[in-house]
Amino acid sequence: MLVSLVAYVLCGAVAGVLAGLLGVGGGIVLVPLMVAIFPTVGVPAQYVQQMALGTSLASIMITSISSARAHNARGAVHWDIFKAITPGILVGTFFGGLIATHMPTMFLKIFFICFILFVSAQMLSNYRPPASRDLPGKMGTAGVGGVIGLVSSFVGIGGGTLSVPFMTFCNVPLHHAVGTSAAIGFPIAVAGTLGFIVGGWGRPDLPAMSLGFVNLWALLGIATASFMTAPLGAKLSHALPADKLKKGFACFLILVALKMIWGLV
C-alpha cells in the first residue's frame, strides 16, 4: 500500500505542474498511470478505466483550485466567461460521467487513445483557431460548456484541451484562456466526480476505500501533491517557452498512446 501511495503522490506532482503550465487536464497523464496501477491494488479489470476517470476528475477539484488561484493573482481569469460557461459544464459533465459508468471499458480506452492522439497532433502542429469572433451569448457559451463537459468526463480531464482553443478563437489572450480554463476545471471536476460516484455506487467487487468509481486512497496522494505543484506550473507558464514544452509533451503522449494500443492488442 505504501508503494502505491508513493506512486499516487508522484502522479499528482506531475499532474499539478502540467495543469498550471500547459492548461491541459492533468488527467491526460493521470488516467493511463492509474490504469496501470489499479489492477495491482484489486480493482477489477472491467472497472479499471471508470475508476481511473472518476479518480482523475476528483483530483482535479483540488488541482483546479490551486491553479486558478495562482492564475487569478496574475489577473488571468475571466470570471464573466466562467459564469456563462459553468451551467453547461455542470450538466454535460455530470451526465457524461453517469453515461461513462455504463459503457464498456474497451470503448472508453479506445476513446481515450483517440483523444490523446488528437491532443498530440494539436500540440505538434501548434494550431490555434484564428481569433476571428467574439464569445457567443450566454446560451451559446453554456452549450459549448456542455460539449466540453461531456468529452471531459469520457477522458477524465479538466477540459483545458478544449476550452483553451475555444477561448482563443473568441479573442481571449492565450495566458488568460489558460487561467480561465484552470477555473473552469473546478465545475467540470465536481460534476464529473458526482456522476462517477452515483454511477459506481453499489457496484460489486470494488476495493476498500472506493466511493463509487473514485478511489479515495489514490485521491489522497494525488490531491496532496497536485495542490502543491499546480502554482509552480502556473508560475512557469508565464516564464517558459510553452510552445516548445508542448511539443515535447506531445511526443510523450504519443508514446503513451502507443503503449495503450499495444496493451489492447
Automatic annotation (TrEMBL):
Regions crossing the membrane: 6-39, 51-69, 81-100, 107-124, 144-170, 182-202, 214-233, 245-264
Membrane topology, from the record: Multi-pass membrane protein
InterPro entries linked: TM_pro_TauE-like
A GO cellular-component term linked to this record: plasma membrane
Chief location of this protein within or outside the cell: membrane
Keyword annotations from UniProtKB, A to Z: Cell membrane, Membrane, Transmembrane, Transmembrane helix
Keyword Transmembrane: yes
One Pfam short name: TauE
Cell compartments where the protein resides: Cell membrane; Membrane
Keyword Transmembrane helix (UniProt): yes
PANTHER family on file: MEMBRANE TRANSPORTER PROTEIN HI_0806-RELATED
Family the UniProt entry places it in: Belongs to the 4-toluene sulfonate uptake permease (TSUP) (TC 2.A.102) family.
Protein name from the UniProt record: Probable membrane transporter protein
Species of origin: uncultured Desulfovibrio sp
Upper classification of the organism: Bacteria, Pseudomonadati, Thermodesulfobacteriota, Desulfovibrionia, Desulfovibrionales
